[in-house]
Amino acid sequence: MGLWNFIKDAGKAIGIGGDEAPDADALKKEVADLGLDASGVDIETDGDTVKVSGKLLTQELREKIVLAVGNVASVAVVEDNIEAEDPAPEAVFHTVDKGDTLWAVSKKAYGDGSKYMKIFEANKSSVIFVLSRQISFAIVIVLRLRLPVSGSD
Predict the structure, then answer these.
(1) Mean pLDDT of the chain
(2) pTM here?
(3) CA-to-CA distance for 143 and 105, rounded, in angstroms?
(4) Domain 2-84 falls in which CATH fold?
């Protein structure tokens, strides 16, 4: 729980475009379109700030919903007040830099680039990947990635 900062001028464009932040209904649709079950979660907007609150079954789903609404263009801050019933440890998050690859992020996070699929699987429903000739060198086009705790799926 807390405040999450995102890059306002980057992220997925939803709605009709422009500099205005998306409304709550557009963000709810985005979460649903990503296949995330947000029943029990309220989403509100206040300018470029999105407020999410409620109760969910898992920590993982909570983190994915925060990323789903934060990785949207014109969103600068996500105020996370979601309570997860599952006491699992929070994942680590990686802010993507230009030129990052899943292999490089995996090597930095886990000490082993060949564990890149763990990151891909944890983020595939909520981010866009452009694959190069070798999937292990997939180029990432998002703002933040969820890195599962080492040893977990």
Answers:
(1) 81
(2) 0.75
(3) 13
(4) Histidine-containing Protein; Chain: A; (3.30.1340)
